[in-house]
């Protein structure tokens, strides 16, 4: 579904992503694991079109995303939940969630919204509350639901566990499983390998802008036991 070949991302003289190639197949959950500054967000931002690729190609469903604007990538079926949640604080929970569907040009939002409320009861309980008043974990649920509200084919989750207590990591993991249950293809980044590997089919380990290792979640878990990224 997603194929990245020899991608490079640069900020002036800084090389954030160096010659990275990876694939995400339909209905898989793939994890990009690595420490702060490894280049994970830069790679995700290149897929959504927020930063340009300095070199290499990104293809979605067999078509190159070169010269495809961010909004058109969303309409093509790429959903995105940013690092640090970034909900719209003064908009209600409901408005935040619907913003995702509107951004992707979805006309019939009702059925999708109802499904999301069933999957994540918090959305119905807090529908009218400004999202900025929620806890960090609750905001993360809203950010996931916003990304999910267009029912994207490919969902990009940038560090969904960042700054959350273990109880919220468990709840966010359950939310991700709900999305997997719908057959959603997921590419997620995390520094916290242990809980993220429980959700993943395969993983890539990123360091210094490069892929250092790849394999099944079990292989990466076994390899990581002796390393510092678990
Ligand atoms: P984090 O968990 O901190 O987000 P990351 O693995 O997502 O880490 P990136 O945010 O992609 O890594 O950063 C990769 C490198 O690019 C780092 O050296 C970072 O300082 C640099 N970088 C990221 N964004 C910018 C920017 N807008 N301008 C300049 N350098 C940047």
UniProtKB/TrEMBL annotation:
<dbReference type="InterPro" id="IPR003439">
    <property type="entry name" value="ABC_transporter-like_ATP-bd"/>
</dbReference>
<dbReference type="GO" id="GO:0005524">
    <property type="term" value="F:ATP binding"/>
</dbReference>
<keyword id="KW-0029">Amino-acid transport</keyword>
<dbReference type="GO" id="GO:0015658">
    <property type="term" value="F:branched-chain amino acid transmembrane transporter activity"/>
</dbReference>
<dbReference type="GO" id="GO:0015807">
    <property type="term" value="P:L-amino acid transport"/>
</dbReference>
<dbReference type="InterPro" id="IPR003593">
    <property type="entry name" value="AAA+_ATPase"/>
</dbReference>
<dbReference type="Pfam" id="PF00005">
    <property type="entry name" value="ABC_tran"/>
</dbReference>
<dbReference type="GO" id="GO:0016887">
    <property type="term" value="F:ATP hydrolysis activity"/>
</dbReference>
<feature type="domain" description="ABC transporter">
    <location>
        <begin position="2"/>
        <end position="230"/>
    </location>
</feature>
<keyword id="KW-0067">ATP-binding</keyword>
<comment type="similarity">
    <text>Belongs to the ABC transporter superfamily.</text>
</comment>
<keyword id="KW-0813">Transport</keyword>
<dbReference type="InterPro" id="IPR052156">
    <property type="entry name" value="BCAA_Transport_ATP-bd_LivF"/>
</dbReference>
<dbReference type="InterPro" id="IPR027417">
    <property type="entry name" value="P-loop_NTPase"/>
</dbReference>
<protein>
    <submittedName>
        <fullName>ABC transporter ATP-binding protein</fullName>
    </submittedName>
</protein>
<keyword id="KW-0547">Nucleotide-binding</keyword>
């Amino acid at each position: 579904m997603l194929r990245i070949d020899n991608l490079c991302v640069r900020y002036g003289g800084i090389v954030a992503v160096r010659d990275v190639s990876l694939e995400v197949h339909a209905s898989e959950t793939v994890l990009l694991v690595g420490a702060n500054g490894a280049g994970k967000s830069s790679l995700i931002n290149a897929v959504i079109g927020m930063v340009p690729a300095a070199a290499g190609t990104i293809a979605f469903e067999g078509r190159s995303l070169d010269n495809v604007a961010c909004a058109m990538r969303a309409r093509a079926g790429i959903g995105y939940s940013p690092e640090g949640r970034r909900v719209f604080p003064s908009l209600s929970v409901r408005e935040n969630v619907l913003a995702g569907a509107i951004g992707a040009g979805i006309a019939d939002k009702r059925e999708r919204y109802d499904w999301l409320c069933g999957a994540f009861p918090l959305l119905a309980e807090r529908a009218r509350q400004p999202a900025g008043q929620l806890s960090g974990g609750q905001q993360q649920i809203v950010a996931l639901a916003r990304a999910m509200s267009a029912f994207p084919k490919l969902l990009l989750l940038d560090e969904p566990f960042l700054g959350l207590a273990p109880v919220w990591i468990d709840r966010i993991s359950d939310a991700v499983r709900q999305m997997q249950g719908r057959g959603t293809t997921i590419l997620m980044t995390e520094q916290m390998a242990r809980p993220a590997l429980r959700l993943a089919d395969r993983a890539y380990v990123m360091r210094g802008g490069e892929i250092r290792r790849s394999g099944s979640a079990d292989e990466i878990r076994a390899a990581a036991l002796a390393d510092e990224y678990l």
